[in-house]
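Chapter summary example: a protein plus magnesium ion.
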Amino acid sequence: MEFEVVIGLETHVQLATSSKIFCGASAAYGGYPNEHVDPLTLALPGTLPVANKKVIEAAIMMGLATNCQIRRYSRFARKHYYYPDLPKGYQISQYDEPICEAGSVEIKLQSGAKRVIGLKRIHMEEDAGKNIHDVRTESSLVDLNRAGVPLLEVVTEPDLRSPAEAAEYLRVIRQIVRFLGISDGNMEEGSLRCDANISLRPLGQSAYGTRAEIKNINSFKFVERAIEYEIARQQSVLRGGGVVIQETRLFDSASGTTRSMRGKEESADYRYFPDPDLPPVVVEESWIEQIRSSMPPLPAALRRRLIDEYGLSEYDAEVLTAERSTVDYYLAVANAGKNRKLAANWVTTELFGLLKRDGLDIENAPVSAERLGELVGLIDEGVISGKIGKTVFEDMWSTGRSAAAIVEEKGLRQNSDEGEIARLIEGVLDSNPTQLGQYLSGNERLFPYFVGQVMKATKGMANPQILTKLLQDALKRRTGE
Ligand code: ADP
Ligand code: MG
């Protein structure tokens, strides 16, 4: 029997705010254990949460970026469970009134085709702390630095159909949050984590099959691997005549397998109810408009602009909009260097080549975009050839000097080929018999005229010292004839 794969992802995006979601403690990554902790983080009696406005703004931004409806009235809710890393005994999240609903994101498949993935909701919540089980001392330690760090949970409809689509969707989410500047999207540091819900259904059946939820996926590679394993597992269960049970499974990256962790908890188990300590989140239309107008352009809009206005290929546009820093750099090169297509070639080949060779990020490129733009301008104007341009670029890279300074100092703009210049001089003298006759009969003021003609013949590239000397020689020879 053939099956169709159905996947829904729940992605946690850790927001890059300076303070936590309901108190003033630092939300920075790292630190000594329990360094970023205050009375509220510890859930000491008498403490009360106050929502961080930046978190609500980030949620609205994310909602606008993913075509969501923004609720004018949403609520925080308590989700109860007991764990040592959760001192309050409940997590503050959102339940039936999340801030964003009914959105979509577009992903591009390997085939080049595009698919729209529906978003059910985006809600705000606090992260929990971390339990560390120390085998040496046979004790468990609790680090509450992460407790109360703000998260957005982005939940898709069950619209994804393969492990590759799931990974691509996650890349798009990462790209959006990075462009918006609301998260660094760093999977290694846990700024982006996802749970994958997977089910199979016989081809042609419209009802969804029973799903399993895989937790603990923390890299792009593992998203695909965990889902692939889970598909194979469910397939063999179903082909063997068994049934998939709804449960939460844990991905073990070492073995590449998933194992059962617990039966699926029902939402009733969490005893959700609106948090009485926090007022409802009321979002005025004017606030949404203010956020919308201050949002940076997103990758999709930038891609369109590079294709329509800058005349770039879809491929170049895609490569150049992978990161905000890349597109910013490219735009600055293009604006300084005028020839936009040539600027794109230089960024995607020479610049990327040297960044890769030296293991650098574009933010740390030793050549600024304006300077690369100047170089592209020199090439575009024919002052130097593209080939010379590459050596000039390497020189700029290692010395930090400008293209113009290098070209001047190294005389790169000039044609110093004496044989060629001498030949061009003979050609100019031969084709200007009248002026040559006047010169030879004493009108030495015609010398600059010949210089100009030869310069023109070398497209302005002749070395003037060589030209002057060779021209004097040639005229002397003709005087003697
Ligand atoms: P819950 O309330 O149990 O968390 P949701 O309806 O919010 O369930 O869905 C959680 C995630 O599971 C969503 O991303 C959703 O798309 C996905 N999902 C729901 N049903 C299925 C299914 N049958 N197969 C795969 N994914 C599913
Ligand atoms: Mg859920």
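Key point: The chain has three domains: 3-286, 297-410, 418-480.
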